[in-house]
Amino acid sequence: MTSLLSGVMLGLSLIIAIGAQNIWVLSQSMAGANRWAAAGVCIFCDVCLISVGVFSASHINEAIPALVPFLKWGGILMLGYLALQAFSRALKGSSGLSAADTNRQTWQKTALTAFAISLLNPHVYLDTVILLGNIGAMQDSPFWFATGACVASTLWFSCLSFFAPKLKVILSSPARWRLFDLSIGLILCAIAIQLFFIEQ
Question: Does the keyword Membrane belong to this entry (predicted)?
Fold first, then answer.
């Protein structure tokens, strides 16, 4: 039970921290654009990475450092692309939140984007594979620690997707929605810049 609770608490503390993945899922969910596909992919990625980290911590520590430069630049490019999309919506937007506009892409495309933004982010690997993996491997029961961390991810993204649409009322006006898109773009740029200055 102690390992399970430790996994839940540490998992939540890392996952809830505002990042590109959370921002993207939030914006998709608020728009009602295949929000469960986005959340499902994020949960799936977290569960896989946490499991790999906890049960293969010693081997991962040797392999990950060589991958960091590739993950870093892939993440920067992905963040830049998503930021440009947000800025474009803020610039061209002439109406409030519109389900007709946001639901044009298929759930398959949403899922692929979710995979990209989840896996092209070095912080995801550092948090789930390295940090959670090493701490989990030292627990009395690594299995229950990993289970707790996976439960944390499932709870967070499920709640994010479930409650986010209620914010549509606040962002129903054109000005507020464009301001929201502008804010998303700026935050994504800030994360990309922060990622750029991380030492390889």
Answer: yes
pLDDT (tens digit, 9 = 90+) per residue, 160-181? 888 877 776 776 677 877 887 7
Q: What's the 3-state SS for 8-48?
A: HHHHHHHHCCCCHHHHHHHHHHHHCCCHHHHHHHHHHHHHH
Question: What is d(CA 85, CA 155) in angstroms, rounded to the nearest whole number?
Answer: 28
Closest of 122, 160, 152 to residue 24, by C-alpha: 160
| Of residues 26, 13, 4, the one with CA closest to residue 128 | 13
What region does 33 belong to: left with phi over 0, alpha with psi -120 to 50, or beta? Answer: beta
Q: Dihedral angle at the C-alpha atoms of 149, 152, 156, 157, nearest 10 degrees?
A: 50
**SS3 call for 93:** coil
Q: What are phi and psi of 19, to 5 degrees?
A: -150, 180
pTM listed for this prediction = 0.69
- Is the CB of residue 164 less than 8 Å from the CB of residue 26? yes
The pLDDT score that the predictor gives to residue 155 is 94
Helix, strand, coil % in the chain, rounded to nearest 5: 85, 0, 15
Contact indicator for 166, 25 with CB cutoff of 8 Å: no
* Distance set, CA 124 to CA 19, 29, 93, 157 (Å): 10, 21, 32, 15
Residue type, 73: W
